[in-house]
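ingest -> validate -> predict -> emit
validate: passed (alphabet ok, no gaps, 409 aa)
predict: started
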Amino acid sequence: MRPIRPLFTVRNGRSMRGRTSPVAAVALGAALVLTATACGPSDDNAGGDSSSSQPGGSNGDDKIQIPDAWKDKLKDNGIDLDEWKNGAWKNWNKDDWLREAGDFVNPIIEDLWDPDRMRDADKNPDRGVDDNDISGDQGVTDPTPKPVAAAAVKAPYHDQVAESGKLFFDSPEGSMVCSATVVKDPAHPGKSNMVWTAGHCVHAGAKGGWYRNMVFVPSYNNSGKSVEELRNAPKEEVAPYGVWWGDWAQTSDQWIEQGGPTGGAGAPYDFAVIHVKPEKGSEGKSLEETVGSALPVDFNAPAVPQIDTMTATGYPAAPPFDGQKLFQCADKPGRLSLTKPDPTMYRVGCTMTGGSSGGGWVAKGQDGKPALVSNTSIGPVTAGWLAGPRLGKEAKGIYSAVSKKFADK
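emit:
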């Protein structure tokens, strides 16, 4: 069996796991390697969905702001707002991190993510069949796909894939990166502030908690500058459509209970939705209005044999890539079963590495129009293919819960 890994990248010079610290190989039939920025289940399990969520937020007027409703809860958790702003967020004491799992907050710290910090964040977090199983028969794994060379997206990226961007966050291992996609919000047609990514990009899984300082940068490095050119680039070029802070994140209970940096059984449920708000205001415009596009999400995509092509998009950060440029892979999908009782995953040939985790997979939906149908979750240590979860009822529950939460805002 071939080893697999989660696809995240970390900054401290440790190996890549698809998004954070050292790589840990695990047997294909065993657990998948994923990592998330969120911790355990929260008190609010909206609508009874199989999901966990994390609140947080700020309006960006000052260096750091937190809604009044959260201030007492932060104090109850022993968090001093000024101390947090001045660096207390760097304390990853295990007991505290796990204790705060259900009460995640992500207050805006203005200009924390400057161009240098974004450029240097290069770690990746590693990571009976449901009626929506894509294979139609339980536990099926198709032959390993041939590697498909990742193709560089033509700059400016916004002209090609305006919905795509890069996700930045802090973890105990350092600053990390993933990829993410702007998706439509049923409650706010044409004005979505919702972003789709992998569960392991928001939460560390069974033995960790929610990640911190989580921001989404649409069309990061839009002009495709090199690492050297980025060293002198102003923030307006690195983040031409602004920096958007997560004020709510939600992932599956399966990921939180079973996922982990060196294994876990949460990969078939490795998806997450983040609600965002602008760091410095956006003249009243939503994320969708700001970038000019958002993808619909298809929770009932056609079976694998009926899909000609899936296109995965992301910012791979592990060699031979540097995490600064956007790439894509297009391939006919196959099936990958990690454990017989869990949903079968999609799999495509692709040479993208850590950092591409969480990036959207697009295919034609039942209506024949392009839609997000999965996200990058895991891949082999040697690269060559990627696998992503089937978006069924659990994913739809999370998506609907986040949309509903902000329906009146």
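The first helix runs from residue 68 to 76.
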